[in-house]
Amino acid sequence: MGGRCTLASTLAEKDERLPVYEYEGMYVAGKWSPTSGPRIEVRSPASGVVLGRVSEASTADVGVAVDSARAALDHGPWRNWSPAERAAAISALADAIESRTEVFADLISAEVGSPRKWTPFGQLATALGVYRSCAAIAPDYEFEAKRPSLIGGEVLVRRVPVGVVAAIVPWNAPLFTAALKMAPALAAGCAIVLKPSPEAPLGLSMLSECIEEAGIPAGVVNIVSGGIATGEALVEHPGVDKVSFTGSTGAGKRIGAACARDIRRVTLELGGKSAAIVLDDVVVDAKLIKGLVTGVMANNGQICAAQTRILLPRSRYDEILEPFAAAVAAMRVGDPTERETEVGPVINKAARDRIEAAVSGAIEAGARVVAGGTRPDGLDGGAYVNPTVLADVDNDMAIARDELFGPVAVVIAYDGDDEAVAVANDSEYGLAGAVWSADPVRAADVATRMQTGSVSVNSPAPLDFGSPFGGFKKSGIGREGGPEGIATYLESQSIIL
Known about the structure:
Aldehyde Dehydrogenase, Chain A, domain 1, seven-stranded mixed sheet
């Protein structure tokens, strides 16, 4: 039976403002087909009400989806389309998503907890930027090139699709993280099996409508829902040529090990504990404070590239800390579907409890609470955490080393640029970062010394749609975005003429 949407009034537990989305089965070969697994109930992190249900794909179901992708790859027209034709389909997919902006924004705000005022940009415009950037790059991408042979004659170097791609995405930004995988894989001519997180599968189930509207041939994109068992079945399936995963470093280690056993290609975009270095010449104004707040608190702090370590010069520590803490304390916490809300819930109560325990541990270790630190009043039904700022943090504290994935900033003092860089680099992660300064040249010089995949200057933006994004160290392997992102879905073949 196909995916369908029913009204919330059919449930005892409901939010009258929202429909309940029912997607039965898996999206395979261009249609919704039955699965043998149980139903997964998706609940709002803000209220606990039921938002929808999807079907869990078993190991056998995953096999059907992989076979569908393989058939579309080997016998369908997709890989033989010209780069310009594939780019046009990617653009059409972006248009189909954009035409549903309000519906997607409402749904993802409800299932993830993203503030509704932020979702059109943070969840939708970012995904559209990835698709459209990739569509602009693809027509002129060098899929074939001749070069002189060192032994005489010529060599034709072809860049061909890697094959069937398993794309496994997290719950925090489902459309965006799916776009980072789907756009370059489609541009390369690959076929895809997409697995959403069980915490947020509804928006990506709805994506099936956009895939059909864009005219992407049946079987090129398949969607299976499920938890760890479904993901493991997909990663270990012999018909999968490449795995692209975004999620925790712990899960990434297991996926990387599984791919290594079978010599399977893999891209891993993992955790982060990114630093924002504020240099001692900075102008303390609204742009700086807003940028620091956005860098750590966007999407309720649930962004892998969140700049959660704020490094302040000791000579100006209080001057910068006080307005930053005041801005965080003034943020409006509440129902994410309300347009005035700035901070919604974290994904579930287990995450809330883990964040609270980490904050308590930091206080015991000597950190000082200057904003938040408690649960918000009147929101006991949801997984809410007040946006929090901890001052006087040492970089050796657990709160400064572990990825928290919540609305908590730690503030660390430093003396001199060299120490700031050393503290920023003293982490097992290296995903993103920022440098703030009145002198952009000085800031760029400091940025080049940071051991991290991307660094923004005088901005909290962690990536550029047309440029590579990914991490150093335990933040991952490989890059997404730009021409480099397409390259990870291609194999090189040399034909010696």
